[in-house]
Amino acid sequence: MSTKEQTLEDVLLKEEVLKENEIILYNDDVNTFDHVINTLIYACDHTAEQAEQCSILVHYKGQCTVKTGSYKELEPQCSMLLEAGLSAEIS
């Protein structure tokens, strides 16, 4: 494989990765850690450990990407987070 082909392949791979959307969860002063953790487990199929780590990141950093994927896959999950009273958006 030539260098030019490898470079083209790398660029195409990066473009494919960049097309992923993200659900970003934002910190608030209303919801408890337990509520956030349980909601992430339910809505985003997180393990308890993943959900706990995300809740800590949200608390201290103000936001955290909790899920990546296509917009079509993320929309119902983000809706569940919003219905549970969390602050989230798809970007």
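The record above closes out task 2.4. Task 2.5 opens with a second protein, given below.
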Amino acid sequence: MSELRALTKAEAQSLGPPDWKHACHALLYAPNPSRLFGKIPLRFAVLMQMRFDGRLGFPGGFVDPRDISLEEGLNRELCEELGSGAASLHLAEKDYLSSHASEQPQRVVMHFYAKQLSLEEFRMIEEGAVQAKDHGFEVMGLIRVPLYILRDGVGGLPMFLSNTFIGNAREQLIHALDTLQLMPAEQLQKAVRIAQKRH
């Protein structure tokens, strides 16, 4: 993939068809007071998915030219990938986080959103996703991101970040964890450093 260029939403929307395609993806998260093994705080449940190509990414996809807005395209894609539980999500402009442009292998502008849910809403989406139209086709399954570092210094988020991600999904995840303060900054930076050493 070519180098990504950060854009404001206005700059991103000025890049239109037929030269540019737009894609929208979302990070869904919920406060999670549980502890792993009764000891390690989970902090938040953060949703990602295993894609058909074996890479990790976020729910969402390409905006159809018939979609009235980026958000309408995103909400349509979420329903296709997550099922009926996503119908009540209604991501809006206020949930927007960032935009990036890439020119290779095709010209795509990627828009990223984030929305906080209750843990109950989050679980309902997880449970309903197996009935979604794209389950077993475009989406192989949902995954929760481990927001901790185990005592071995590798397990948890560092190991998770060592996986293969689609496009800039890895960078989007790190940016969202930092911006939304879903993990203490020091621990997040440590996890990123450890993952980089493993590559």
